[in-house]
């Protein structure tokens, strides 16, 4: 048996320990701790939390009423009217008549299923019937009589379930439904879903109870067998059952199901590698399918292209990344060969705002400003001519609303660092947009009035030495540029994410603890085109981590940034980034808080992971390079792992695998486990633990010694007792059979 380290012996003899998943977190070398409110400057956080929501408030309007000559609107507690010809604004009163009614006809009629699940019922369009999934089958219920009849029952000895999917389809393909009525109620489509070859993950629950319970779930991990999805259609009047021909390839994904206005069943189909996507239309009476659109990429294909139908139910606007950027096309269900390009940008189209068939125009937004996160309002004819950018490139524009005659519109302008204002535009004789009036504007002096420095949007060069990147820096109250401040990187950083969206962001009140907080959009995030997004293809936790480090290096050149006290904090993919940052760049990051991290991409699900990494067999080097578990023995900085034991998304084995790797290497680290938490940990103890850890290692504790166990002058004998007044932070003893080196003292060099 390995001998117990002398300092640990002192603590054990005193009886100051708690057993929990094997790491040291206490004693003279451990982390200071307590409730968040006990942190130095915690009261300033509360003060700032009350101030920040008020900064930026007042720049938007609501409840619009248009007339041919004016617009009446609600701003704050008052009503105003603006004359469209002159832009003159006067006080007004609420317009007479009924307020505009929100169209709820397309809202879901059935309860939300919750994250990563599918609804278990689907109400027919006429409201008379309800399709129900239970016991692996689909049943039809008469809502008035409550009587049920089977549509398709799960057969004994078979593994196919009907009217449902599984976790991975819900989480990664946003498939929240598994039964779909045609618009006229004549047909009911539903999944035929076979999970029988998918390995189960045996998740345990009830960790805080007398005995745990098993909660197994089908969860395919990279390279595993996937679920097999099929589609069936029930014809209500005749009782006929039709099997849809979804193709010969079983290892594929079928999702995004909807009905067209002409009673064709539409769905997306992608191959397992997810570099090719089909929009498919199926005949509900024969089950025959035909491909309407195919999109293919060298890396990975966006699995939810923009899709919006025109009134005829045949023509639709579709987004394609053929030229490397998201652009729009007009297509037809009736003619798969018909393609009318609408936009030809070298920047991504963000969304479709409105299709105006009366004027044959499409209104949309695109990231066409010099600062790429600032979306601009555009307009183009439905034949692809007369494309116009209608807004200036200095702000991010959203909230477009047009007058009934189409001659005027309002939109809201803001940037990440300047609060919103709502502007009225008129279209002149050349169809150019002219600003008529500012209808609302948040006070521009909100930061100055509260003795706060305005957040700063900054740029730097990525780790590739070429690509321009953006970040946002938030300053603590009473900022003094002659002093030095620690820096925290608040991170997510994964694919399809964007930290800086263009919208105003007053920042987190946590900076009132006395530190700088920054957000950085690394390569691999969205909003800048396919090449930018694909920079991390086959190598997650490569270029994204490198770019975060490059951003810190740039900020560290500023005299007020304390480059010796820089940390990263994130959850989920952000937790992965935090763990990898301290492992790969210990000279830059002295500490990291990794909440629910994927510590090895072999642990995550097939659809997400293989989209960006392919399988471990195809890309073993990429999986190894992105594995925090494999790098764990090299840890030199301070690391805090946080995880929920009932996390069905990023399984707790991720954190426990990494913990074991560090224990085996006798590497010190800290960990907090939440017995009853899933992927979202809502306990206030999460915030308290994370910030006490960061406060210690970023040098924020004013009197660290008051929060530490002071080592005794000499080793007590076996019978010595510990004075009851001695302040104690419980140590956490290692799991049986593991070896753990005590965590370094506060302030020790990583």
In brief, what are we looking at here?
This protein has 750 residues and is α+β, with helices and mostly antiparallel strands. The chain has twelve helices and 41 strands.
Structure description:
The protein is an alpha+beta fold and 750 residues long. The protein folds into 3 domains: 6-54 and 447-733, Alpha/Beta hydrolase fold, catalytic domain (Rossmann fold), CATH 3.40.50.1820; 65-92, no CATH class; 113-276, Methanol Dehydrogenase, Chain A (8 Propeller), CATH 2.140.10.30. It is built from 12 helices and 41 strands. It has an 8-stranded mixed sheet with strand order 33-34-36-35-37-38-39-40, with helices on both faces. Residues 1-31 and 703-750 have low confidence and may be disordered.
């Amino acid at each position: 048996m390995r001998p117990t380290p002398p300092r640990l012996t002192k603590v054990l003899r005193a009886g100051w320990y708690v057993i929990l998943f094997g790491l040291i977190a206490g004693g003279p070398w451990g982390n200071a701790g307590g409730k968040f409110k006990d942190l130095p400057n915690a009261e300033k956080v509360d003060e700032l939390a009350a101030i920040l929501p008020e900064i930026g408030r007042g720049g938007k309007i609501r409840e619009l009423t248009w007339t041919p000559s004016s617009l009446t609107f609600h701003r704050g507690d008052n009503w105003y009217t603006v004359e469209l010809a002159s832009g003159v604004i006067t006080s007004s009163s609420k317009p007479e008549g009924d307020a505009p009614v929100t169209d709820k006809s397309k809202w879901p009629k059935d309860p939300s299923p919750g994250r990563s699940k599918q609804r278990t019922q689907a109400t027919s369009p006429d409201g008379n019937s309800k399709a129900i999934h239970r016991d692996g089958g689909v049943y039809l219920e008469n809502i008035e009589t409550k009587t049920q009849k089977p549509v398709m029952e799960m057969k004994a000895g078979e593994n196919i379930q009907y009217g449902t999917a599984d976790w991975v389809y819900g989480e990664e393909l946003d498939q929240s439904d598994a039964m779909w009525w045609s618009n006229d109620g004549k047909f009911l489509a539903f999944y035929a879903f076979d999970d029988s070859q998918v390995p189960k993950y045996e998740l345990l629950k009830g960790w805080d109870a007398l005995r745990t319970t098993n909660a197994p779930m089908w969860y395919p991990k990279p390279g595993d067998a996937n679920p097999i999805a099929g589609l069936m259609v029930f014809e209500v009047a005749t009782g006929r059952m039709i099997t849809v021909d979804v193709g010969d390839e079983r290892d594929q994904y079928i999702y995004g199901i909807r009905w067209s206005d002409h009673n064709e069943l539409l769905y997306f189909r992608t191959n397992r590698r997810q570099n090719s996507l089909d929009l498919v239309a199926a005949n509900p009476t024969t089950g025959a399918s035909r491909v309407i659109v195919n999109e293919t990429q060298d890396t990975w294909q966006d699995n939810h292209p923009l899709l919006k139908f025109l009134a005829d139910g045949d023509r639709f606007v579709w987004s394609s990344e053929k030229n490397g950027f998201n652009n729009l096309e007009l297509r037809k269900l009736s003619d798969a060969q018909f393609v009318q390009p609408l936009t030809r940008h070298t920047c991504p189209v963000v969304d479709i705002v409105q299709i105006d068939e009366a004027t044959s125009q499409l209104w949309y937004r695109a990231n066409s400003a010099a600062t790429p996160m600032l979306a601009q309002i555009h307009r183009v004819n439905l034949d692809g001519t007369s494309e116009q950018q209608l807004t200036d490139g200095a702000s991010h524009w959203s909230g477009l609303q047009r007058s009934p005659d189409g001659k005027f519109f309002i939109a809201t302008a803001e940037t990440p660092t300047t609060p919103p204002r709502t502007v009225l535009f008129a279209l002149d004789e050349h169809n150019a947009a002219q600003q008529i009036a500012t209808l609302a504007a948040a006070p521009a002096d909100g930061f100055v009035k509260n003795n706060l420095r305005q957040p700063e949007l900054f740029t730097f060069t990525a780790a590739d030495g070429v690509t321009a990147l953006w970040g946002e820096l938030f300053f603590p109250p009473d900022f003094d540029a002659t002093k030095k401040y620690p820096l925290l990187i608040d991170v997510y950083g994964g694919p399809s994410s964007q930290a800086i969206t263009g919208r105003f962001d007053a920042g987190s009140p946590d900076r009132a603890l006395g530190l700088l907080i920054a957000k950085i959009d690394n390569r691999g995030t969205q909003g800048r085109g396919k090449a930018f997004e694909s920079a991390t293809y086959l190598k997650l936790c490569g270029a994204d981590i490198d770019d975060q480090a490059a951003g810190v290096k740039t900020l560290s050149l500023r005299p007020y940034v304390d480059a010796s006290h820089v940390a990263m904090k994130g959850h989920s993919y952000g937790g992965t980034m935090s763990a990898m940052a301290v492992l790969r760049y210990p000279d830059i990051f002295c500490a990291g808080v990794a909440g629910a991290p994927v510590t090895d991409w072999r642990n995550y699900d097939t659809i997400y992971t293989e989209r960006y990494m392919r399988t471990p067999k195809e890309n073993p080097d990429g999986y190894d390079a992105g594995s925090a578990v494999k790098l764990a023995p090299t840890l030199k900085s301070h690391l805090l792992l946080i995880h929920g034991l009932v996390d069905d998304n990023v399984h707790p084995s991720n954190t426990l695998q990494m913990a074991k790797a560090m224990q085996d290497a006798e590497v010190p680290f800290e960990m907090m486990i939440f017995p009853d938490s899933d992927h979202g940990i809502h306990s206030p103890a999460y915030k308290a633990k994370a910030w006490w850890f960061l406060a210690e290692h970023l040098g924020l504790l004013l009197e660290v010694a008051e929060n530490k166990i002071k080592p005794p002058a000499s080793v007590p004998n076996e019978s010595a007792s510990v004075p009851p007044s001695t302040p104690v932070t419980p140590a956490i003893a290692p799991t049986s059979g593991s070896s753990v080196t005590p965590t370094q003292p506060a302030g020790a060099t990583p």
